[in-house]
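Re: weekly structure request thread

Next one in the queue (126 aa):
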Amino acid sequence: MNKRLVLLCSCLALAGCGSDDEKSSGGGGESTQGGGGTSSSSAVEVDMKDVTYVPMEVTVKKGGTITWTNRDAFPHTVTKESGPGPKFDSGNIGDGESFKQKFTVAGKIDYFCEIHSTQKGTITVE
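Done, posted below.
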């Protein structure tokens, strides 16, 4: 595990893992600048790196938010394939940009990148 990931996870834990002033746009997502890291809580971070979601499988609490951040020099998408809750599609996310999505329905959700058909991930909402 790299030092940057450990540091960010530690900072998130100390900061209370997020804020109450997240913005929403229709489908519940937005593009922003962001950081990397992962956790199984109400605020989860996923990186898009080397045409892979890192980590590929995450767990988020019901009502929690996942933030995907592109760490590649080319665009990716975060697009729901199947599972409970509303559909979501980030559109193209450029290098260094992020997309946030809130999850309010429990269950397993599969998602993928529309640009890279082998780039897939799974979300478990508890």
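Confidence is low (pLDDT under 50) at residues 1-39. Strands lie at 29-33, 43-49, 52-54, 57-60, 65-70, 79-82, 97-102, 107-112, 120-125.
Next request, please.
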